[in-house]
Design goal:
There is one protein chain. It contains 20 helices and 2 strands. Helix content is 72%, strand content 1%. The protein is mainly α. The protein has a domain at 2-125 and 315-435. A hairpin with a 3-residue loop joins strand 1 (86-87) and strand 2 (91-92). It is globular and about 70 Å long. The chain starts with a helix and ends with a helix.
Length: 467
C-alpha cells in the first residue's frame, strides 16, 4: 500500500510542478486540470480498488498523462514564450480549439472508464490450453518454417538494417512492409512462446522432448533477435514484443498493476525521450561508430524537455486539427472507419479509398495553412471517433476500446500461453494504437494477431486432429 500511495503522490505532484515550470493562461489551465483530475481518479481506482491485472488500463493512463497533459502544456508554453502563432505541426494556435479538445478528452475518459468497469463485471469463459503435447512437433515444423522465412526475407531484413543505420526511408510499399515486418517476421515468436510454456510445464519431467524443445527455444530466440532488433525495427514494435516475452518468461516481474504502471512511466516519460536524443543524431552509424563523441555532443545540444515539443508528441495538437477540419467540412460519416476496417483492399480496386486520418490531416494542414511537408501524422483515437461521427463517435470509440481491453484482460488470466501473449502484446502496443493513426495501428496489430495467435491455433488444431 505504501508503494501505491508514494506513486500516486508523485503522479499528482508532477502536475503542479509542470504548470509552475511552464505557465500557460488560466483559461487553459482549468480544462487541462479538470482532465488531469479525472485521470488521477481513474488511476486511484485502478491502483487501490481494481484487483484484476490490467496492463491495458495502465497503458491508457500513461498515454493520456503524457500525450494529453504533459506534452501539450510544454508545447503551448513554447508558443507563448516565443510569441509564435503555430504549434508543433505548424497548425494555428487556438485557445478555443484547445479547450474543445479537452472537452472531447473528458467525455472519452468518462465513457471509457464507466464502460470498462461495466464490461469487467461480465463473466467470461476461462480457456484451457489443450495442445501441450503438440508443442514439440510444432517447434519442429516452425524450425524449418523460420529458415524459409529467413531466406525469403533476407534482402528485406538487410535493407531495413542498412537503411535505418543511414537514416533513410525504406523503398518498399506499405503492403510489403506490413506482410514482411508485421506478419512473417513475427511467426517464430509464437513458437518461442509455446516452447517456453512447454519448458515451464515439463520442468519436473525432463524427457528427451524437453531438451528437444529447449534447443528450439534457443534457436527461435536467436532468430527473433535477428528479425527484431533496434537496428531494423521501431522501438514501439520491439518494445511490445520483448516486454511480452519477459511477461511470459517472468510473469511475476510485471503481473500487478503498480509494477506495470511504474514500468510504463519509466519507459515513456524517461527512457523514450532519452533514446530519442540518441537516435536523432544527424550522422550515419559508421560515423558514430568511428567517433562516439558525436553521441555526447548531440546529448549536450539537446534539452531533455524539448523532446516533448516534437512530432513524436503531436497527438493533442492533431486532435485540435481534426476538430478544425470537422468544423469546416463536417464528419466523414464513417468513411474513415470503413477505410480502416478494409485497409487490405488495394487502392487500384477502390479508387476512392480514404487515406489514414493522419495522412488526411497532413494534407489538410498543407492545403489550409501551407508549408507542411510531412505526409503521415499521428491521430489519436479520440479524434478518429470525432472525424467519423462527431461527439457520438467519441462515445462509440471509447466504448469499443473499453470492451476490447476488458476482453483481453480476461485472456491474461486464462491458462493459454498464446492468449496470454497476444493480450499482453496488445496492451503494450496500445500506446501506439491510441496515438494513431487508427489505420496503421489496426493493420499492424491485426497482422501480428494472425501470426502470434490465429496461425498457431490453426496449426496446433490440425496437428491434434492428425493423431
Amino acid at each position: 500500500m505504501k508503494k501505491r500511495l508514494f506513486f500516486l503522490a508523485v503522479f499528482i505532484l508532477i502536475y503542479p510542478l509542470l504548470l509552475i515550470s511552464f505557465p500557460i493562461p488560466l483559461k487553459l489551465i482549468i480544462p487541462f486540470a479538470i482532465n488531469f483530475l479525472l485521470l488521477f481518479l481513474i488511476t486511484l481506482f485502478f491502483l487501490l480498488n481494481n484487483k484484476k491485472f490490467s496492463p491495458g488500463i495502465a497503458a491508457y493512463i500513461v498515454f493520456c498523462y503524457l500525450f494529453f497533459n504533459v506534452a501539450p502544456i510544454i508545447q503551448i508554453y513554447d508558443v507563448i514564450i516565443n510569441n509564435k502563432t503555430t504549434i508543433v505541426t505548424s497548425f494555428k494556435y487556438s485557445e478555443w480549439l484547445i479547450i474543445k479538445s479537452n472537452i472531447l478528452i473528458f467525455i472519452f475518459h468518462l465513457v471509457f472508464f464507466i464502460s470498462h468497469e461495466t464490461f469487467c463485471r461480465i463473466k467470461t469463459k476461462q480457456y484451457q490450453f489443450k495442445y501441450i503435447n503438440q508443442t514439440p512437433l510444432y517447434c519442429f515444423i516452425f524450425f524449418f518454417l523460420s529458415i524459409l522465412i529467413f531466406f525469403f526475407t533476407y534482402d528485406f531484413v538487410i535493407s531495413k538494417t542498412v537503411e535505418a543505420s543511414h537514416g533513410a526511408e525504406l523503398n518498399y510499399s506499405k503492403l510489403v512492409l506490413l506482410i514482411n515486418s508485421k506478419f512473417l517476421l513475427f511467426i517464430p515468436f509464437s513458437a518461442l512462446i509455446l516452447g517456453i510454456n512447454y519448458l515451464k510445464k515439463r520442468a519436473s519431467t525432463k524427457t528427451l522432448n524437453y531438451f528437444f524443445v529447449l534447443g528450439f527455444v534457443c534457436f527461435f530466440f536467436l532468430v527473433q533477435l535477428i528479425f527484431k532488433n533496434p537496428l531494423n525495427e521501431r522501438r514501439n514494435a520491439i518494445g511490445a514484443m520483448y516486454l511480452t516475452l519477459l511477461f511470459i518468461i517472468k510473469p511475476n516481474w510485471l503481473n500487478n498493476n503498480l509494477k506495470i504502471m511504474i514500468m510504463l512511466f519509466f519507459i515513456m516519460i524517461i527512457m523514450f525521450p532519452v533514446v530519442q536524443i540518441f537516435t536523432h543524431i544527424n550522422h550515419p552509424l559508421d560515423e558514430v561508430w568511428a567517433n562516439p563523441n558525436l553521441i555526447l555532443d548531440n546529448f549536450n545540444s539537446k534539452n531533455f524537455i524539448t523532446t516533448f515539443n516534437t512530432l513524436n508528441y503531436d497527438a493533442f495538437i492533431n486532435l485540435t486539427t481534426t476538430i478544425d477540419y470537422v468544423d469546416k467540412n463536417g464528419t466523414t460519416l464513417g468513411m474513415q472507419l470503413l477505410g480502416t476496417l478494409l485497409f487490405f483492399v488495394p487502392r487500384s480496386f477502390w479508387h476512392s479509398k480514404p487515406l489514414s486520418t493522419g495522412e488526411k490531416m497532413a494534407g489538410y494542414l498543407s492545403d489550409e495553412y501551407g508549408n507542411w511537408w510531412f505526409t503521415n501524422l499521428s491521430n489519436p483515437l479520440v479524434s478518429e471517433g470525432y472525424i467519423n461521427f462527431g461527439i457520438l463517435g467519441v462515445i462509440l470509440f471509447a466504448i469499443v476500446l473499453a470492451f476490447v481491453i476488458s476482453r483481453f484482460v480476461s485472456w491474461l488470466s486464462c491458462d493459454d500461453p498464446l492468449r496470454n501473449a497476444v493480450a499482453f502484446f496488445f496492451c503494450m502496443n496500445l500506446i501506439f494504437l491510441l496515438r494513431g493513426s487508427l489505420m496503421s495501428g489496426y493493420a499492424y496489430f491485426l497482422a501480428a494477431f494472425l501470426s502470434i495467435y490465429l496461425l498457431p491455433k490453426f496449426i496446433l488444431k490440425s496437428l491434434k486432429n492428425m493423431r
